[in-house]
Design goal:
The chain is mainly α. The protein contains 7 helices and no strands.
């Protein structure tokens, strides 16, 4: 039993590292805002003195409480762990790569890359009954109470609007 638990938490750590890479190296430098907790945190960071990692943490805590109440303790515990890793990895990246710039220099390419990497990380998390927090918790709630396919529930919970600092895509 301990081996399965350790394996689950190592898997969650890997998945959150993957998701954090997608967010930090593709989403944030392009200033593309998505319908996600990180997207909301990016907007709030522009109008407050708080960092994206801090704002992501605060919003996720509120959604985690909702997830634990409506989905269950196992999912809640794993998602809490995952949600703590996201701002931790983002903070590490902020310190190691403080002047992060877009790797593709194209917001559309950044968004496509972000989406593919994020989906890969989310798939890993959902397979071990966890989520990255945020809108994934909303998707899991929609899935549980409507029996909607989890992929469709993710789409419903996160309508993506692409905005760049200079134009609307």
């Amino acid at each position: 039993m301990k081996t399965n638990t350790l394996k689950s938490f190592l898997t969650i750590t890997l998945a959150m590292f993957i998701i954090s890479v997608a967010i930090y190296f593709f989403l944030i430098p392009s200033e593309v805002i998505t319908g996600s907790v990180t997207g909301l945190a990016m907007v709030l960071a522009k109008i407050t003195s708080l960092s994206i990692s801090t704002l992501t943490f605060v919003i996720n805590v509120l959604l985690l409480i909702l997830g634990i109440v409506l989905i269950g303790k196992e999912f809640g515990a794993k998602t809490i762990y995952a949600s703590l890793l996201l701002p931790l990895f983002l903070a590490v990246f902020e310190r190691i790569y403080p002047n992060n710039i877009s790797l593709t220099q194209n917001a559309v390419f950044d968004m496509a890359t972000y989406t593919l990497i994020l989906a890969f990380g989310q798939t890993i998390l959902f397979r071990v009954n966890a989520s990255s927090g945020g809108t994934d918790i909303i998707a899991k709630i929609v899935n549980k109470y409507t029996h909607m396919d989890l992929g469709k529930a993710c789409t419903v919970s996160r309508t993506t609007h692409l905005y760049n600092k200079s134009n609307c895509i």
